[in-house]
Amino acid sequence: MSASDLCAIADCRIVRFMFHDRVAFGGTLISVAILYLWIASVPLRDGERWAWWAFTVSGVLGFGSFLLYLGYGYFDSWHGTATLLLLPVFVAGLARTRPLASQPSMPWMRSAEFRAASAMSRAGRFGLLATGIGLSLAGSVIMFLGATEVFVAEDLGFMGLTRDALGAVNPRLIPLIAHDRAGFGGGLATTGVLLTGCVWHARPMRSFHEAVLAAGTAGFGCAIGTHFVEGYRNPVHLAPVFAGAALFLVSIALLIASARQRQAS
Prior knowledge:
The chain is mainly α. The chain is built from twelve helices and no strands. The radius of gyration is 20 Å and the shape is globular. The mean pLDDT is 91.
């Protein structure tokens, strides 16, 4: 079945739904890449042990989420090939940097410096920590959903089709959509784990704020933007992502403003 054939069904809403999932997934990958670049170039280069563990834990989660295909029954050969090519490079990087990550450090949010920081700075950190935890939980739920039910009521309402009707279009369609959804959940959970680790451990610095701002802009921007491009504007469906984006923007704005106040004083 071609994309044109699928687009001829239900006013092309099936294709638009799949497009929205894939763009959102792409946004999480960009976010992960930005955070990885910052972790590798700053804390890991300085030998901070937490940075190596951030790579390890997020890598296990991210690469491991590929195995969710066992639940929905669709093996994506392109996705599998990319994973197979990236995995040994990632593992080699972990092995090479493990001896370098020898500097233990107290998480910044448990340090005396954090307790002495301004209320604005502490509020920003707590807000970003909540954002990271929320993304981790949301991604975990979406991964589970992708491997089991696949759809929520708002999804079927947007497409104007029941689950049985989608299965009748092509029996491989639901497993394909499940693959996209589970992949997005894995990317979202990985982003959340990375953000949580960075916010908990990293010292205040301009590059950290810039990396978090760029990662959040890519992730939330793709997730929100694709819904409006594709016409999936259900307020119930969009409420969590808008709440997360608002919390993120307020939190990072507080951190940046507090940093500028310190520089000016």
